[in-house]
Design brief:
formyl-coa transferase, domain 3, 2 domains, alpha/beta, Rossmann fold, three-stranded antiparallel β-sheet, single chain, six-stranded parallel β-sheet
Amino acid sequence: MNGTGSGGPLAGVTVVSIEQAISGPLATRHLAELGARVIKIESPMGDSTRTYDKNVHGMSSHFVWLNRGKESVVLDLRDDADRATFTGLLDRADVFLTNMAPGALERLGFPPERLRDDRPRLIVVHISGFGEGGPISHRRAYDLLVQAEGGICSLTGAPGFPVKPGVPSVDIGTALYAFASITTALYARERSGEGTFIPLAMFDVAAETTGFALNQVIHTGIQPDPVPMGTPLIAPYGAYRTADGQTVVLGATSDREWIKLAGDLMGDPEFRDDPRFADNASRIDHRRELDSHIAEWTSLRTLAEVQDEADAAQLGNARLNSVTELSRHPQLSERGRWHTSLVNGFEVPALKAPFVGGSWGSSSSSRVPGLGEDTERIRNEI
């Protein structure tokens, strides 16, 4: 099929998706950035994120982030003609991805696990909230709900004050697993000639990302206490105010780095050799005293002084930035990490995908489609 996908290692691959929100759209956006043609099927209501706001020339911030480089086709899968168009698209597709609510496609007569039966080369990816089987498989799933059910919120915030991370980490993680699964399945198909069915559950992604804490609980029975800016399993590892009102982030992820932090950076051999801080487990047990002493040291120095000294000691460090500061960060601009996307006829800045580089470049199409903008053209193709 002809379309917007062009250039890149996935040129010639056609992806059909019934997707909304984040996990599905981010996975297919990355496929489009590698040259695949992505045909996004929407109901007459459109992807739910289209109406979150109108911040980007009339389109929502979410939708613009997740849907550049795609084509939008409006189909009502209860209508016979539209069902025929959908079937025709599947017959020509290499990949079909969906993250619709539990049972939605089954009720329309298109159970995802059976779509490949008559299409042996088709790769089908079905993203669900909680997977098939089990007592809560029927539930709808959003990022917050899965993070809560999957234990992530208990590791974030402060003791007695669980917090959802500020980015949709389970949605993004699921998208990346879908992206990796699809590219792997395409590679496997080159060898076997056969497609496959790939079920992905957001809950399984959440469980995987808690792996370090999950192992601790299984083997010790101890639930880690959340640390507001850091991790419950490493100390010191956190944020400290500086004399000029900034916040520096420092950490020691090994005993070797602890010697660098307390000895080389802080120049405090007594602190370095204190038996309370002899190893990571001891430092966790005495986190309050540890952080207090480091905070007192940073409070007497500017951010630049702390970072210069940390760099000299070859110790990892960062400035706590806002998203506004990230948007102006020289590490992005000076490395050419920005390009443009077309939104309602306006060119807007957009980050390149993290993996785009070298000889791959990026797909030439970066348009964000209006609802149903490509429907008639694709009907004519079918």
